[in-house]
Queue: 4 jobs
Job 1
Amino acid sequence: LDFKNNKAADMKAGAIIENFNLSKNVKGTLFPIIEESSMRMTVDESSIALDVRGKPLKSDLAVASRTKVASWIPFNSETGIHVRSKKMNLDNLRHCVVYLADSVFTSAYEDKRGALDKAPFLQRPLGKFLNYNIINLESRFDSMFHGKKARFSDVVMNAQLSRGSILIKDFSIDGYGATY
């Protein structure tokens, strides 16, 4: 990978993780956080493919991501992410959304507080990433739960990040006797 000339001729790389488990030790008792997980990633001069399967927080999750790379510097791509789960613990999504939103807002807030010689948000790596990349997200969860009693079914969300804007294309959820 030649970053100086923005070329990736004949580049091929890959990584595989099989049977990954992560547990939390609380006073000598192990509590599983992620069980029976696997990941496969391949990268070549014009694409990135990532497949992840896991069982975080008593869920089953399959994520497939395919990226077409137009440019490595600045990184410019179009990505399709497909998320599928038969049963999903709402805490998994909550942790992801809170982390991502916190990162974006913290970085943008630093712009307002920072000195004038500091690069504006849109010129920093995260700002460039948000503006130069298109990400299409398609997700479907057959059952979504929180705690022991709260359950939803047939949760579908399709969204897109394009040129710094997030568009929710489709969202539906069934639960508590209604479809939303």
Job 2
Amino acid sequence: SINCNYSGARVVSFEKLKKILFDEGTTSIYNCYRSWPELETVVLPTTLKSISSSFNDCPKLVNVNFEDAPDASYSGCFGHCGFTSLDIKSAGHMTNCFEECNQLEEAVVEKATIAGGFARGSRSLRHLVLGEKVTFRETAASDDGWRTLPETENAAELPDLTIEVKNTGLTDLYCSCFN
């Protein structure tokens, strides 16, 4: 496990670092790698099980090999990053990920359990594809949406959002969280 907060100290960031490669055997990443302005690529190990509160505010981050960690769960990570598209073949749980990625135009999620807040505030999102193996935890239905804006913003100014839902078992209740 990698935890960047230990004994109250925080690991110093490397502002010019462009790529992070994790060693095989790493199973969790917690509270790390925030506000790295030049970070472009993250290479995850196949042994990864979870990432929490990491890789936020990395405006140039556009490359992550999600497919190599197919069962990993993601919570509160990859917000305010530079992704223009996402193609997630398989993930465990995804909670509050990719928030306010304002260059994100398309996201494809083939398999995951969405627990709320996916791409919340990502104003540029135009196309979202949810594969047959995407499910929702009940909290997603009561969540405040997928592309929810602060009350001061006008939803009419957003580009149209097309959502393709390939899992016919998803109910209207769960789809109501798309706002």
Job 3
Amino acid sequence: TVPFLNFDEMPAALYYRARNGHSELAKRVMLDRFCGKQQQVAATLGPKDAPRLAALLKGSDWSLAVRARGEQPRYAVHTAVGAAEGSLPLECCRCMRVFEWPLQLEFAVVVVQGEGEEARWIEQEDTWRVDDAVLPLRERFEDELLLALPELPRCNDAACASHAANWKSSDPAPGSHGE
């Protein structure tokens, strides 16, 4: 776990605030300020903030608590760490019912500038590439969330799991033939 990622420990002055009083993740931040000055952000991310993620989910009544912090340069590059918590409405690939999938994500990435640095680091570390010293923070965060989604979401419903255990390869797949 990343120790700073506790909401209670983060100074309110470092939050990005929306006009309505809820915190919102900035779309773009200057790399030298975010990483170089070790800025921290805590926000609520919802469907309007993550449209690519929202398009894959089965409902619009969701939000995630997200946190991120830029870190001082390491080996002449910047780093960022982040986390997200909440639940997302996914469709079970077995029974086709919508269920709440719990998400607890933590990540650390090397923030690189340009193709050359990316090519040098991508084999060793997870990277976020920036151009023009501007980090598209919300977009990169959404990328991490998309990567965290299960390829074949499955609910924990006992009847669904029992049906899947008894399902024979010759039976039609759930959801086919009008089911």
Job 4
Amino acid sequence: SGPFGFGERNIQISRSILSRIEDVKVHCFSVSKQEALEYKNLAVNDSRFSYSTLENPVPFQEFLEKFKIAKIYVGISKSDGLGTSFLEALASGCYPIQTDTSCGDELIRKGAVGKIVSSKISNLDLVNSIVDIYYDVKALESAQQANQAFAMKYLEQNEIIRKSLQFYNSESIEELLGES
């Protein structure tokens, strides 16, 4: 299911995590309609699982609340840029487990606390990584403080990008400079 077949992989990984960690809650985000049906079926069978899709969106405030209580962010993809959810996960203090296919792995190399995994990682190895981190209280605490600070620093460094985008979306240079 999904354009890259990740829907079924997400379901398998979610089921494995739910079976191995009793007190865990899992939330999956997806854009695929087919995944939505699979997620709905899992959510009906296990109250610890929740999901949001384009068909079943979560209001932004609720989305942020989910990140606030989350401990681990898992970003698996075959190809990706820098997703906003990755930055939101860092800003909320999550420990990211990110494939080596996005800009997220670059941020981990630059100082964010997290783990980079191959996009070809097996489901079992990925689940083992998630479970290991879940029980590593020191790593989770370290990530919370370090990643929140890193995200703030990173976002400040990108102020020039924000201003550039504002410039290109403005009507005129005078508007940008507040002289209109």
